[in-house]
Amino acid sequence: PDRGWGLCLDDPPVRDELEMATVPPGVLYSAAHQCRLQYGSGSLFCDDMDDVCSTLWCTVGNTCHSKLDGAADGTKCGLNKWCFGGECVRVGYRPESVNGGWASWSTWASCTRTCGAG
User: Fold this and answer.
1) Could you say which of 21, 24, 64, 87 has the lowest number of CB atoms within 10 Å?
2) HEC profile for 79-106?
3) What is the pLDDT of residues 69-108, one digit of tens each?
4) To 5 degrees, how large is the angle CA 107–CA 113–CA 114?
5) Which residues does residue 83 pair with via DSSP β-bridges, in sequence order?
6) CB atoms near residue 82 (< 10 Å)
7) Residue 87, beta-bridge partner list
8) Helix or strand run (H / E) with residue 58
9) Is the dihedral of CA 3, 8, 25, 97 positive or negative?
10) What is the pLDDT of residue 105?
11) Which ranges constitute the DSSP H helices of the chain?
């Protein structure tokens, strides 16, 4: 049920443009920190498991568990290496950006469909 907590979503934005982080999230949050975020404050990073970039393993109690997702982009995975796109690559590597072909923002218009996601 609606508790009325989402009303702030109707507020106009304070700024027109948001600043994007200049570093990937794994630079800010180590593999150990990512484990604590996913499994709780007592969780530790299982560094003796497979490649952290493809699968992040963390302790839950006395055993290692995974949600079968890799560590966040920017997570350290070796000497002068970090994770990017599930692979361990040299630090600084970033894939080329791709122009998605989106148009500029415009005013609201009528729906293109009468029902569903139009």
Assistant:
1) 21
2) CCEEEECCEEEECCCCCCCCCCCCCCCC
3) 999 999 999 999 999 999 999 998 877 888 888 888 888 8
4) 115
5) 88
6) 25
7) 84
8) strand 57-60
9) positive
10) 85
11) 25-28, 31-39
Q: Which two tokens stand for residue 73?
A: 């982009």
Q: Which amino acid is at 29?
A: Y
**Paired residues of 60 in beta bridges:** 63
Amino acid at site 13: P
By C-alpha distance, which of 50, 14, 52, 15 is closest to 33? 52
Alpha-carbon separation of residue 24 from 13, 75, 96 (angstroms)? 24, 8, 14
Phi, psi of 28 (to 5 degrees): -85, -30
Instruction: Say yes or no to pLDDT of 66 above 70.
Output: yes
Question: What does the block give as tokens for 47?
Answer: 């560094």
At 58 the pLDDT is 96
